[in-house]
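Q: I'm writing up a methods section and want to include an example of the input and output format. Could you take the sequence below and give the corresponding predicted structure tokens, formatted cleanly so I can copy it straight into the document?
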Amino acid sequence: MKRVYVNEKWCLGCHLCEYNCAFANSGMTDMVKALKDRDIFPRIRVEEGDSINFAVSCRHCDNPLCVKGCISGALSIQDGVISIDSNKCVGCFTCVLSCPYGCISTSESGAVQKCELCTKNADGTPQCVAGCPNNAIVFEER
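A: Here is the clean output for your methods example:
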């Protein structure tokens, strides 16, 4: 299965992946209207250090603790992609606590959110990858 991988040696820490992610999941067609003067809630997050930067997103684990810990059944695995049914999410944040990679966060609506590899977007390919100017984020099988 293809997954998103980050080469931290190439990451500039520009945060464009976050903006492309937020826009791709906004449901809007104009990036400026979707993001200008708004708090963004990307499903990928750039961690910055003194000499290294890297983007953190869901690893779509083979044996995901987040799915096992979800008390409402909002998290599920379909074709290797871990997805969230926000209508079922009760906001208990057990999945946030159980993810060893810190890849699940709160959304604008109060439910949780995470990378779903842009499977629910019109484009169907991860926009964090498409928007990375240094090709530090790739979508491939390993």
